[in-house]
Amino acid sequence: MARLVALLAALALGGAEALAVGRTSRVVHGSRGAARMAVTRAPKAGSAVVNGRTVVLPKFSEECSYTGITLTRYMIEFARANPELAELESILASIQTACKTISTLVRRSSMTGLVGLQGGGGSVNVQGEEQKKLDVITNDVLKNALKFSGKMATLASEEEDAPVALDEDDNYDAYRPKDIVIEEGNKYIAVFDPLDGSSNVDAGIPTGTIFGIFDEGDQTCVVDEGLPLTAAEQECLASTLRPGNALIASGYCLYSSATHFVFTLGAGVQGFTLDESNGEFVLTHPDIMLPPRGKIYSLNEGNRWAWDNALRDYVTAIQKGEGESGVAYTSRYIGSMVGDVHRTLLYGGIFAYAGDKKNVNGKLRLLYEAAPMSFLVEQAGGKAVTGLHRIMDIVPSGVHQRVPVRTRRARARAPVSYTHLRAHET
Ligand code: AHM
Ligand code: MG
User: Fold this and answer.
1) What burial letters (b/e) apply to 206-232, b meaning 16+ CB within 10 Å?
2) Could you tell me the pTM of the whole model?
C-alpha cells in the first residue's frame, strides 16, 4: 500500500495541508510551522538567535551537590525555556540511551566476541567499506532508539545505503485522541554515524557516535510500503536532505576513558560525562569554547605527499613555529574524528581531513560527520571550512557525499557566553 511519508513542513506554509502519515491519510488543519513562527520571544541574556530562531539557555539557580546537573534535568529545563523546541527533550533522551548502550557494547566487546568483521568478512556498506560487527549493531541501536522516540520521519546513517523512511509508529494511533483536528507533525530527520572511527575499536582506541537533527523541510515523498526503495524514491528521500545551517541540534558521544556526551541545541556547546555510579550524564563542561590559540595540529600525515603544496607548506610552517602565532605546533592524531574534535574543542588547535590527489574531497561525509561537527565547532567559537566554503552552507547532493574539513578557532570570539551555567564541582 502506498503511504505518504510527510517529510517536513509543507506545514510551515500555513493553512490546511493534505498530509498523510502511515497507512491512512488525514487532513491537517493549521500549521505547526506557522504556530512556531508566531512564538515571539524577546532575545535576552542567556539566549541566542540561530537561523532566525531564538534559543534560550536553561537557568540553574541551585543544584544538588551530590548529583550535579544531569542531562535529564538540563533537558527538562531546556524544554521549559523553549516550548517550541520541547520535542528535543525526548529526542535527546533516545540518543543518550543509545549512547549508554553503545558505550557498554564497545567496552565489553572483547569479552562478548563483538569484535572483527561482520559475518567474518565480506559485509560492505554502500561506500565500499568493510563493516565491523559493531558498525552493524550500533546502527541498529541508534536507529531503534530514534525510531521509538516517535519523532522521526527519516534517518540517514553511514551504515544505511539510502535514507530510511520510518514506518508510522504503531503506538501512535493508540494514544491519539479520535477527534484530533490539529496534527502536530512531530517529524524530524536524524543523520548519524553510529560508530565513528570503528577501524580503531578492536584495539581499544576511542570511538564515537555523531548525530544531527534537522527540523521539518518542505518535501513530501511517496514510498511503497514493504518494498525496497526504487531509485526515484531514494532520490526523493535524498532530496529532503538539508545543509548544516538547517540543523537544530547536533553532537557526539565519545567512548574513551569516560563516556562524554557533547552537543549543541543552537546556543553554545554543553559537555556531559557519564556517571557510571548512577547511569546519568552529568554536566561537566558547560559552555565549551575553543581556546583562543592552541598548539596542536591533527591530521593524517600519511597523506602528506598527496596534499597540495599549500597545505604541505602550511603544516611545515606550524611545525617549525613559522606560522601566524610563532609557536611550534605538535601533532596528535587518533584517527577517530570524535576523539580528535573533542580534544580540539578542549585544548584548541587545528583538526583537518583535507582533500588530496587520491581523494579530492577527503574522507569525511558531509551529512553525518562534517555538518554536525561543524555546527558544534561554530557554536564553540570556531570555524569549519572545506578550504573554500563554510561547511554549514553546503547543500548535500547525496547521502554519503564527502567534503574536505578544516576546523580552527575563529578570530573573533563568539558574542554569546553562558557563564551562568556553573561548572559541576566534583
Ligand atoms: P569511519 O566513519 O568509517 O570510521 O571513518 C571516519 C574516520 C574518522 O573518524 C577519522 O577522522 C578518519 O576516518 C580517519 O581516516 P584515516 O584512517 O584515513 O586517517
Ligand atoms: Mg565516521
Assistant:
1) bbbbbbbbbbbbebbbebeeeeebeee
2) 0.81
